[in-house]
Amino acid sequence: MLHFKRFISDASSSLESFNEAALEAFQEAESRLIHGLNEQSTRELIPEHIHSVLDYEALYAQSRRYHEHLEFLLEVKSQKLFLK
Fold first, then answer.
1. Do 82 and 10 contact (CB within 8 A), yes or no?
2. Angle at alpha carbon of residue 68, lines to 67 and 72, rounded to 5°
3. How far apart are the C-alpha atoms of 68 and 72, rounded to whole Å?
4. DSSP 25
5. What is the per-residue burial (b if ≥16 Cβ within 10 Å, else e) of 10-43?
6. Which residue ranges make up each domain of the chain?
7. By the number of CB atoms within 10 A of the CB, which of 4, 58, 67, 84 ranks highest?
8. Contact 5, 74 (CB under 8 A)
């Protein structure tokens, strides 16, 4: 089993190209990283108070109590997709 200290997941789409979509996803991840590093206070959340994607991010970042809910992301074997 692999152990990661940090995990970032993002999604993006483009009608133009894969590269454009990937760049947008990386820019969003970079923006969240900068925001997280500059955030003055951390919000203490419980699952019942989740209302947005950013709430999920804060929940999983604040405590190892909820990490088991993310294990399925690390257990999936990677597959290559071939687009025609």
1. no
2. 110
3. 8
4. H
5. eeeeeeeeeeeeeeebeeeeeeeeeeeeeeeeee
6. 10-40, 44-74
7. 58
8. no
Distance (Å, whole) CA 70 – CA 81: 23
Contacts of 9 by beta carbon, 8 Å cutoff, 6+ apart: 73
pLDDT in tens, the chain (84 residues): 445 555 556 667 778 888 888 888 888 777 777 766 676 666 677 888 888 777 777 776 776 677 677 676 666 555 555 454
pTM, entire model: 0.42
CA-CA-CA-CA torsion sign (8, 53, 64, 69): negative
